[in-house]
Amino acid sequence: MTLHRAAELLAGARHGLALTGAGISAESGIPTFRGEGGLWTKYDPVKVSSIETFLADPAAYWMVSRERGRVALAARPNPGHVALAALEAAGHIVAVVTQNTDGLHQESGSSRVLELHGSGRTVECLDCGRREPRSAVQERLDTEMPPRCPHCGGTVLKPTVVLFGEPMPAAPMQEAFALAAEADVMLVVGSSLVVYPAADVPFVALRSGARMIVINAEPTPFDRLAEVVIHGRSGEVLPEIARLIDA
Ligand code: APR
Ligand code: ZN
Questions:
Q1: Which residues of 185-200 are buried (b: 16+ CB within 10 A; e: fewer)?
Q2: Which H helix or E strand runs over 16?
Q3: 117 Cα: distance to centroid of ligand 2 (angstroms)
Q4: Which of the four pLDDT bands, split at 50, 70 and 90, describes residue 213?
Q5: What's the rounded mean pLDDT across residues 121-150?
Q6: 117 given a catalytic annotation
């Protein structure tokens, strides 16, 4: 039974590693990018989420980000996040590598979280470098579009997330690939695994002999490489696996 096999692999893991994507936050109400109802089914990602188009027209970016930010700020961790934090606390995984920028892993108690695509919880003024919480900027978006820096008046404020065409943050990347190289169990949750270099993390783990578990609502390109594939909702599957481990 795949759930039992996943529980067995994680229970015996000494260097378990998790990689998460937007799917783990879907049950917190944050739309995914691809798949049913995904953000990129409504907008062209390069048009609304690349550094070139952002710098050319920050207001266009903020018009899309305003709604997504409101939803993300209102979102709370779901049982999938909580189960991952419990797996880390019990030592079955050593860290969560995430493509998400919503901060819900940290909020649910995961302590070692590597944010490959940055964090949407902070906004930086590209003119003076001043940073402020996204929640403060969110409040101004109905009257200030694009938002203005309260410190220098600059109008190019950017969430500290990685846009298409931007380099990935070096430190989390290095740490994620180092952990993948020594992982014995690679748990991938809620990602379509089509965006690189994040999708290289499970490749590195597999090359180092890790056994892979994929939990996703729909098939991924990595399913054929995984020892366990569970097509389901992470908010149901992860707590069930955590329960079986404790059973
Ligand atoms: N439980 C498990 N999986 C789910 C759930 C759920 N409740 N809901 C949706 N999914 C799956 C979808 O089937 C989809 O395959 O989660 C996956 C989410 O895939 P994407 O939307 O592509 O998200 P992600 O893989 O994180 O995208 C990577 O692309 O646009 C960039 O920077 C963005 O970080 C993002 C990156
Ligand atoms: Zn400024």
A1: bbbbbbbbbebeebbe
A2: strand 16-20
A3: 23
A4: very high
A5: 96
A6: yes
| Distance, CA of 73 to chain centre | 15
> Which CATH number does the domain housing residue 129 bear?
3.30.1600.10
Q: Which atom in ligand 1 lies closest to the alpha carbon of residue 34?
A: 21
Picking from 44, 70, 42, 47, the residue whose alpha carbon sits closest to that of residue 57 is: 47
**Mean pLDDT, rounded, for 3-15:** 98
Peptide bond between residue 79 and the one before it cis (omega within 30 degrees of 0): no
Task: Give the Å distances, CA to CA, from 198 to 39, 60, 204.
Answer: 19, 26, 11
Q: Active site residue: 4, 15, 117, 151, which one?
A: 117
Structure tokens at 100: 């998400």
The string of pLDDT tens digits covering residues 37-88 is: 888 888 888 888 999 999 999 999 999 999 999 999 999 999 999 999 999 9
Residue 137 CA: which ligand is closest?
2
- Domain containing 92 equals 1-30+77-117+167-247
Distance 192 CA to ligand 1 centre (A): 5
Q: How many domains does the chain have?
A: 2
Task: Quote the pTM value.
Answer: 0.97
